[in-house]
Sequence to fold (494 residues):
Amino acid sequence: MFARIMAMVLAGMVLVTISLSSIWVVTLRQQQINARLNTLTEEAREIAYLAARNDASTMAWMMGADMDTQFLISWKSERVYQDYNAYIVVVDRRGRVMDNMATAIHDDPDFASSLNGRELRDLLIEVMGGGEVSLRTSIGGAPTFTVGVPFVRNGTVLGAVLIHTGAQTVEGGINEVILPVVLVATLITMILGLAMFIFIRRIMKPMHALTDASRAMSEGDFSARVNAEMGTAEIKEMAAAFNLMAEKVSAQDLSRREFVANVSHELRSPITSIAGFVQGILDGTIPPEEHMKYLGVVGQETGRLNRLIESLLALSRLEREDAGLNLTRFDMCELLRRCVIRRVNDLEEKHMDVECDFREDPCRVLADMDRMEQVAVNLLDNAVKFTPEGGRITLITRRAGNRAEIVVMDNGIGIAPEDRGRIFERFFTVDRAHTSGRGTGLGLSICQRILQMHGESIRLLDTDEGAAFAFTLKLDTEVREITDGRDREDQGKD
Fold:
């Protein structure tokens, strides 16, 4: 992966470098051409200046009268020719001409033969009109640069100087531009490539760590973690999210293992008892007069096993993705009364009192009535189990904002501080050895799941004695509107 990313980055850098280098070459080349044209123009002006020093009306320098000026013009023209391989012509208004045609024909017959007299004449006319010419033209089909400068004396144009040279002469020397551009571009590419290599390697290092940790987790090693302090801010955030996910997966795996172990333990205990007593009856270890006694024990263990399986099935059904709710409007106070009646035998057996403190009565809610009855029964059963004889259970309904809050409270043995954070865990009971037969440890987990399905919560309250659980439900909207209206009417009467 790292190699592919580097290859893609380098390919992109090369393309960008080539594009920028091409633009740079074209720009430098144009600057070079402009510089050479400016140089040719300056050369033409110097020749024009020398020509203007003479008596232009007689063109004495052409006839040999001013040998110094003629020598200077010839020397200057020769130097320009050597530098630019140029055809140079100096002409006055009388049509007298001084040029280097003979030398041009001798050195470059093709260029000299491409000169077009008509085109030169048109250019001369423009220059003789007092204008300077600096342009790229095509003379005889060959690309040519032309520079034309008039020479003037006392404000009068006396003649013109024209310099013609092949385009390749001015545009030549491209290698002088390309070579440094290529060297600079190569150096820049190498530096950027090295910087990108270091940068990508720095980014990919934590990515490799993430990949290794993910592979380890896929193979069952949920202890794998990554350093969340390496890389960019995005990589750090990803590493932190991965570690959080790993923590949750590890916790779920531990919960799963504990769940399997607890289920195995809870199933093994009654099955072992049942198998032991039945085998004792069959092989005669238990005398006939004791059979009914131990068959009763077998029946109790069978009931315990049945309750455990029913709880497991109930929890499994609640956790299915397609588990739904049958929402209805009902009176929670009436439901609590029915649950108390169902447990009246257990309550009378332990001489327990039930106090109903229904501050919101009727307490109409919008919920799944069957599932809420299951919650109420579980909480009431817990209160009965863990409250000694002569104890008291209190049921409270009250309004908490736009919610109904239901509280089930007892004055029993309570819950130890070290156990308070685990009471909603599956199979967790305050009797750690799971030998008392008081419950499966699934009741509160089922309650919590049912309330989560309703979008509500259940919590353990802080109490001076015993234990108290509180959960919330949505109030029936229609009832709440009627009640609010009555409250406003009462306030108006006051």
Q: What stands out?
A: The chain has three domains: 2-176, 222-321, 324-483. The mean pLDDT is 75.
